[in-house]
Design brief:
The protein is mainly α. It has one domain. It has seven helices and no strands. Helix 1 packs antiparallel against helix 3, helix 3 runs antiparallel to helix 4 and helix 4 packs antiparallel against helix 5. 21% of the residues are buried.
């Protein structure tokens, strides 16, 4: 698989994640009524809910910027860990938060040359040899 295909795939996954995290963060930041109701149901007050949305959005921006991708990825992975814990605490399905977290890992590995060399050594060697 060529470097260009790997990088493009990483960016496509990043764009999907950008849509998902933006779609999740804005109702929190704007304190949308249905979002606040959901927050209250799991024990968050409005100010904490808004802060969670801001953290989510800042983490996403850091993830999108190539120079800060790794920092953003770590923050998003930690954020999703909190989401998974919250879902487990309230007996909710963790399938979606785990899938999103896996996508963050995959996009990061595909977009980061350092991680790509660590996790896809055969593919990277193949690209350089041919």
């Amino acid at each position: 698989m060529s470097h260009k295909i790997i990088n493009t795939t990483g960016w496509i996954i990043t764009l999907v994640l950008a849509f998902l995290f933006t779609y999740s963060a804005f109702p929190k930041i704007t304190l949308d009524a249905s979002s606040v109701a959901m927050a209250t149901a799991v024990g968050f007050d409005e100010s904490t809910w808004r802060l969670i949305g801001v953290v989510e959005l800042v983490s996403l921006v850091l993830f999108i910027i190539p120079r800060t991708t790794l920092i953003g990825a770590l923050l998003l992975i930690a954020y999703m860990g909190g989401a998974i814990a919250t879902h487990l605490q309230h007996q909710q399905s963790v399938v979606v938060p785990i899938a999103v977290q896996v996508l963050v890992w995959v996009a990061t590995a595909l977009r980061s040359p350092v991680l790509r060399r660590q996790f896809i050594p055969a593919s990277h060697s193949f690209v350089q040899q041919h």
